[in-house]
Design brief:
Blueprint (H helix, E strand, L loop, with lengths): L18 E2 L23 E7 L10 E3 L7 E6 L4 E6 L8 E6 L2 E12 L6 E6 L3 E4 L19 H15 L3 H14 L4 H13 L3 H14 L5 H12 L3 H13 L6 H13 L3 H14 L6 H13 L3 H14 L6 H15 L3
Parallel strand pairs: 2-9
Antiparallel strand pairs: 1-9, 2-5, 3-7, 4-5, 6-7, 7-8
Helix pairs in contact: 1-2, 2-3, 3-4, 3-5, 4-5, 5-6, 5-7, 6-7, 7-8, 8-9, 9-10, 10-11
Length: about 350
């Protein structure tokens, strides 16, 4: 139901897309559980294997929740061995322990662990955990493009220069570097994808869509450009197309792409599918652990206002303003708060 929309962006769903061996086990507490302090200790060592016995072609990519870290990655080796260091106790940052007879078991929460061509892992790990990743199925997607592994050094250098320019919001400069990368290596899907991002930021939407189509053609299992395409279609107010593309992305199990749920919600809202919009924006907020989607709270406010959940709508608009005080929708959010407060009358 629309009225049950959750307000918190910090809910960590321990969703396991990979088959575990010696993992956190049954009864592992939710990462939102109470803080239980401990001193820093020895590193945690885990192992990553592939279900079909294939050798790793690159070190696993590990991303921890982007907060004040209680766990940090010390090393990630091509052998699949990864070591973490628990630095201090802070449950919000993904460090914790569980009591077992005679000892404390240190553990860390991994937001994403990925290897190209295999399912993403998300969940708790502790000393001795073995994660066995399953190969992607026919209709599943990957957050890491296999084309990146074959990119020649000069194309990778151009790509890295583009990423550096993107970080500084130098969109035109980034565009030139990504164009250089794809000129050297025409099937470089991540470079086409980032070229699409830089073009979108310059509001060159048709050019952005063309670049994203090329990223998709270069690596059909690479989820990111499909999610980006939905975003461009939303910017163009092509709601039917946005819904269709977002559905395609969601069918690929985009564990690490809350934007797919957001664009699905945006399209549903504008097409009058209010309950579907509520469900999708709820999921977008829950999975946005890096707090990169303040607009999801703005959209949640619109959905709740339509459903006459005025108090909750105000809270969502306020959350948006807290996350993006100078954001694209800041003036509109303030206007909605004023109008909803006026309608509610004196307290």
């Amino acid at each position: 139901m629309v009225g049950s929309l959750a307000l918190s962006a910090f809910i960590c769903s321990a969703q396991y897309d990979a088959q575990e061996g010696q993992g956190p086990g049954q009864g592992a507490r939710d990462p939102m559980g109470p803080d239980r302090g401990f001193a820093p200790g020895p590193p945690i060592t885990i192992h990553v294997t592939l279900e079909d016995g294939a050798a790793l072609l690159s070190s696993p990519v590990v991303i921890l929740p982007r907060t004040e870290l209680a766990c940090r990655v010390e090393n990630a080796f091509l052998s699949g061995t990864i070591t973490f260091r628990v630095t201090h106790s802070n449950w919000q940052s993904g460090g914790d322990y569980t009591e077992t007879p005679g000892q404390r078991e240190r553990r860390c929460y991994i937001w994403r662990l990925s290897v190209p061509g295999y399912r993403t892992f998300q969940g708790w790990v502790q000393e001795g955990t073995t994660i066995t990743l399953r190969r992607l199925g026919e209709h599943e997607g990957s957050e890491v493009s296999l084309t990146a592994l074959s990119a020649p050094p000069n194309a990778r250098k151009a790509y890295d220069r583009g990423e550096a320019a993107m970080a500084k919001k130098k969109w035109a400069e980034a565009e030139k570097h990504f164009e250089e990368a794809v000129a050297i290596y025409p099937t470089y899907a991540p470079a086409w994808s980032e070229l699409g991002s830089s073009l979108r930021e310059q509001n060159r939407l048709d050019d952005a869509m063309n670049a994203l189509q090329k990223a998709r053609s270069a690596d059909p299992k690479y989820i990111k450009p499909i999610v980006q395409m939905a975003g461009v279609e939303g910017r163009q107010e092509h709601w039917e197309e946005e819904l269709h593309t977002a559905d395609e992305a969601l069918a690929m199990h985009p564990v690490s792409f809350p934007g797919a749920h957001y664009y699905h919600a945006e399209a549903c809202y504008h097409l009058g599918l209010l309950n579907d919009a509520a469900d999708s924006v709820h999921t977008a907020i829950e999975t946005d652990l890096n707090l990169e989607l303040p607009e999801a709270h703005f959209l949640a406010g619109l959905v709740l206002a339509k459903a006459h959940q005025r108090s909750m709508a105000v809270q969502e608009f306020q959350q948006y303003l807290q996350m993006a005080p100078k954001g694209e929708h800041a003036a509109e959010a303030k206007a909605h708060i004023a109008e909803l407060t006026r309608r509610a009358g004196p307290s």
